[in-house]
């Protein structure tokens, strides 16, 4: 899925892990923050 000029894809994992990487760099980690990102946070990341 393309959004804001970025290619976005979902990669399945396990254990409640939810991470977002941008250009190979970890940009968001649910484990580190303790919650899912808000819509505004997602838009800022991509």
Explain this structure.
This protein has 46 residues and is an alpha+beta fold. It has one domain. It has two helices and four strands; from the N terminus they run ββββαα. A two-stranded antiparallel sheet has the order 1-2. Strands 3-4 form a two-stranded antiparallel ribbon. The chain is globular, with a radius of gyration of 11 Å.
What is the gist of this entry?
With 46 residues, the chain is an alpha+beta fold. The protein contains two helices and four strands, in the order ββββαα.
Multimerization status: single chain
Q: What is the string of SSEs from the N terminus onward?
A: EEEEHH
Provide the residue-averaged pLDDT. 83
Helix share, percent: 10-25%
Q: What's the total helix number?
A: 2
Characterize the overall form: globular
Give a quick account of the main beta sheet: strands, pairing sense, barrel closure: 2 strands, antiparallel
- The rounded distance between the terminal residues' Cα atoms is 12 Å
Strand content bin: 25-35%
Rg from alpha-carbon coordinates: 11 Å
Order of neighbouring strands in the sheet with most strands: 1-2
Low-confidence stretches: none
Number of domains: 1
Please count the beta strands (DSSP E, at least 2 residues each).
4
Structural class: alpha+beta
